[in-house]
Design goal:
This protein is mainly beta and about 280 residues long. Helix content is about 5%, strand content about 35%.
C-alpha cells in the first residue's frame, strides 16, 4: 500500500486482474477484499492506505496509470533496471528501503482466487450500475459504460461526462474520467480552469486550441496538457470522439460540465442534432 500516492489502473487493451482492500478495515476485519478483471475501458482506483496488487492476464496488456501526486512513476522506472527475472531486492531494489518509494508491503495479505464473471467481493461489475462511494476509504471499480454518466447539451453538440473519481473520492486532489463528444455545429466556447487539465484521446479525432498555440489535432493515444488559468477550447472532428480527462484539485472541466448536465443512462448521445449556440465558459 502507499501512504502518499493515489494510484489508478485504466485498462487500454488485454486484461489485468487487480485486488484492493482498505488497510485499516483489513486489520480490523470489517471489510471484504475485492478483485476485478479489467479489460479495455475498465478502471480500478486505489486510494491511499489501500492494500493492492495486480497481475497481467494476457501477453499484450496495456494500462494507463494515473499517479497523484506525480513522482511515483520513478518506482516503475527503477523496476525496469532490475536484471531479467530478478525478484525485488535482487538487483533492482533494496527491500528494506521500499518505504523510500512510498511502498509498504503487506505480507499477510493473500489475494483471493474465487473470481466469477470477472469479479469477487461486494459490488456490481458488468451485472449492474457501478457507483462512486463519495469518499477515499475504499477502492473504486468502474466497468466500461456502467459508471455514472451525465449528458450536457450546448454549443450545438452533446457531451457525455463519465467520472471515474471526483474530488470527493480524492480529498480534492484530482478528478479523472472520460468525455464522449459529438461533432459540434457551432463555435465551441473557451474554458479557463483554475487547475491543470490533461486530455488523452481514446477514439475519434479531437481538435484542441490552447491560447497562444496553433490547433492541435489529436487521435488515439495523443495527449494534451493545459496548465492552470490558461484558456483553451476543443471540438470533435469525428463522430463519437472519446477522450480521458485528468484535472487537478477536483475543480476542473468535469465539474463545470456535470453542473450543467443531467443524469444519463446510455454510453451514446442522442441521434438528434442540436442547434449551434455560441457559449462562453469559465470554471
Amino acid at each position: 500500500m502507499h501512504k502518499k500516492t493515489y494510484e489508478n489502473f485504466y485498462a487500454v487493451k488485454g486484461r489485468v486482474q487487480l485486488w484492493g482492500q482498505n488497510l485499516d478495515s483489513f486489520i480490523a476485519n470489517t471489510s471484504v477484499q475485492q478483485t476485478r478483471v479489467l479489460s479495455a475501458g475498465d478502471i480500478g482506483a486505489i486510494p491511499w492506505n489501500t492494500i493492492h496488487t495486480f497481475r497481467l492476464l494476457e501477453p499484450d496488456t496495456q494500462l494507463t496509470g494515473v499517479l497523484v501526486p506525480g513522482g511515483f512513476e520513478e518506482f516503475f522506472f527503477h523496476m525496469g533496471d532490475s536484471p531479467p527475472g530478478a525478484l525485488p531486492g535482487a538487483g533492482g531494489f533494496d527491500v528494506a528501503g521500499l518505504a523510500g518509494w512510498d511502498v509498504y508491503p503487506q505480507l499477510n495479505f493473500t489475494p483471493r482466487r474465487d473470481v466469477v464473471n470477472g469479479k469477487a467481493g461486494p459490488g456490481n461489475w458488468y451485472d449492474g450500475p457501478n457507483v462512486l462511494p463519495g469518499d477515499a476509504a475504499a477502492p473504486i471499480w468502474i466497468a466500461k459504460g456502467y459508471g455514472p454518466k451525465y449528458l450536457v447539451e450546448e454549443a450545438g453538440r452533446y457531451q457525455i461526462v463519465a467520472p471515474f473519481v471526483t474530488g470527493r473520492e480524492t480529498n480534492g486532489s484530482f478528478s479523472q474520467g472520460t468525455i464522449t463528444l459529438s461533432p459540434g455545429m457551432g463555435e465551441v466556447g473557451r474554458v479557463t480552469s483554475p487547475v491543470a487539465t490533461a486530455f488523452m484521446v481514446e477514439e475519434g479525432q479531437l481538435e484542441v486550441v490552447v491560447d497562444g498555440y496553433e490547433v492541435a489535432s489529436l487521435i488515439d493515444g495523443d495527449v494534451v496538457f493545459v496548465p492552470a488559468n490558461v484558456s483553451f477550447s476543443y471540438r470533435a472532428v469525428a463522430e463519437f470522439t472519446k477522450f480521458m480527462y485528468v484535472t487537478g484539485g477536483g475543480k476542473g472541466i468535469d465539474q463545470l460540465l456535470i453542473a450543467k448536465g443531467r443524469a444519463w443512462n446510455s454510453a451514446f448521445y442522442p441521434a438528434t442534432k442540436l442547434a449551434p449556440v455560441r457559449m462562453m465558459a469559465r470554471v
